[in-house]
Design goal:
five-stranded parallel β-sheet; alpha/beta
Length: 239
């Protein structure tokens, strides 16, 4: 199938050293961290990993993070992290981490939310929920896939829109608090979802929804009301 990538389950079960090589600020509260992981076995767009951060005294903290990069970058992965208030791991990354630092990663994990690029994909996310969806967009572009893909993403304002510089014609942004002139402000609504469902490519959409619990419930309800089959909605929640 086009875009399909084989990932070893055995390799995914092993902890690997990951060296931070680059930090890119996406918004005032989110940044992308690029790691060199020489033995990385590859991943499918939409999968996540476990990151382990160990202090000098031996205390360790683990977190699950979606992978932002496309699978095509051999030996490298990217994670995009919000700076969560009081978050010990995200706080370390946003205030202490620098290129050359090492962490441990294990993965990739979860095939349910993965999109191998073999079917039309309708992607809906809010805030940092766009991270695994961006892996799908990047994969679509890197492989020059002809299968249809659309991204509907919600953010508080243009300044809070993660990956704003990369988003293209496949993307429709929705702004809930502040928006550019002549762009309506408000919550994602049926008016945003219905036109995408009306495009309905051959075989129909496979919908991927990622965001907070509240957003996931809201977005999936909009999809169902617009005619998307329940069994073709995949949901990844956080928080």
């Amino acid at each position: 199938m086009p875009g399909r990538i084989a990932v070893s389950k055995q390799a995914a079960a092993l902890w690997q050293r990951a060296t931070l090589t680059e930090i890119r600020h996406e918004t005032p509260h989110a940044a992308t961290y690029r790691f060199a992981v020489p033995a990385w076995a590859g991943h499918l767009p939409g999968q996540h990993l476990i990151l382990r951060l160990t202090a000098e005294d031996g205390y360790a903290a683990q977190r699950h993070y979606s992978i932002a990069s496309a699978p095509d970058e051999s030996g490298h992965i990217e994670l995009t992290l919000d700076h969560v208030e009081g978050g010990e791991v995200s706080g370390w990354f946003h205030t202490v981490a620098k290129p050359g630092d090492e962490v441990e990663v294990r993965g990739p994990l979860s095939g349910f939310f993965a999109w191998p690029g073999d079917r039309p994909a309708l992607l809906i996310g809010a805030g940092s929920g766009v991270v695994p969806l961006m892996s799908m967009v990047r994969h679509h572009r890197a492989r020059n896939l002809s299968v249809p893909l659309r991204l509907l993403v919600s953010a508080r304002s243009p300044e809070e829109l993660i990956y704003a510089r990369e988003l293209g014609a496949e993307t429709t942004p929705v702004f809930t608090r502040n928006a550019p002139e002549d762009v309506p402000v408000g919550r994602m609504a049926a008016a945003h979802v219905a036109p995408l469902l009306a495009e309905q490519p051959p075989g129909g959409w496979e919908a991927y929804v990622c965001g907070s619990n509240a957003f996931a419930e809201h977005a999936s309800r909009l999809l169902v009301d617009a005619g998307q089959p329940v069994d073709r909605i995949r949901i990844e929640r956080f928080g």
